[in-house]
Amino acid sequence: MKQFLFLAVLFFSMSFSGTKPMGYGVGDQAADFKLKNVDGKMVSLSDFKDAKGYIVVFTCNHCPYAMKYEDRIIALNAKYAPLGYPVIAINPNDPISNPDDNFDAMKERVKEKSISYPYLVDSGSIYAQYGATRTPHVFLLDKAKVVQYIGAIDDNAMEPSSVKAKFLEEAIADLQAGRKVKVATTKAVGCSIKPKA
């Protein structure tokens, strides 16, 4: 009887102790969302009627890693949005504890960098729904909103000229060719997300 109780407790603790990672995994279907853009309009994935996929990037203003990747994210949208893979950027940080990430600062950054993709304010739960932990943290979805890649944009956050592996672009190329994504997960490198308490 004691052994049975021990096994039952062990099973219960393994089932509910958080051993399964939070958020989406590769192969999961992502739910749509509706978040406020810097222009004041609400944006959903379903607004992109001709999309063949979605590059969802959790990012922010103040993080040095996010700033290093900003021009690369802009370039990714310029290259892939016309091919049906738009960038949708989401800022998950608390604007009270991180004033550089408040709505006005987001609007100013979009104007300053001439950003053409949506830059959305997280409602406080989307980053957790996805399982994003860093800025930047990328989730590549296919047309059916199934997660095909999770992780970093490439293998060198600090030196764009030294990038050897373009993880995200390689994943998009696999999708475009109708292949299974060869490298479906990598480690996102950046600042930890600082959400509302």
For this structure, what is the CATH homologous superfamily? Answer: Glutaredoxin
- Tell me the domain tally: 1
Structure classification: alpha+beta
Q: Mind describing the biggest β-sheet?
A: 7 strands, mixed
Q: What is the topology, as strand order, of the major beta sheet?
A: 2-1-5-4-3-7-8
Shape by Cα distribution:
globular
The CATH class, by name, is Alpha Beta
**Rg, please?**
18 Å
List segments where confidence is low: pLDDT < 50 over at least 5 consecutive residues.
1-20
CATH topology: Glutaredoxin
Instruction: Tell me the CATH architecture.
Output: 3-Layer(aba) Sandwich
DSSP summary, beta strand count: 9
Termini separation (Å)? Answer: 44 Å
Average pLDDT works out at: 90
Strand composition percent: 15-25%
Describe this protein's structure.
- There is one protein chain.
- This protein has 197 residues and is of the alpha+beta class.
- It has one domain (27-192): Glutaredoxin.
- The protein is 29% helix and 17% strand.
- It contains five helices and nine strands, in the order αβββαβαβαβββαβ.
- The chain has helices spanning 2-16, 64-80, 103-113, 126-130, 167-176; strands at residues 35-37, 42-43, 53-58, 87-91, 119-121, 134-135, 137-142, 147-151, 191-192.
- Strands 2-1-5-4-3-7-8 form a seven-stranded mixed sheet, with helices on one face. The protein has a two-stranded antiparallel ribbon with strand order 6-9.
- The protein is globular and about 45 Å long.
- The protein starts with a helix and ends in a 5-residue tail after the last strand.
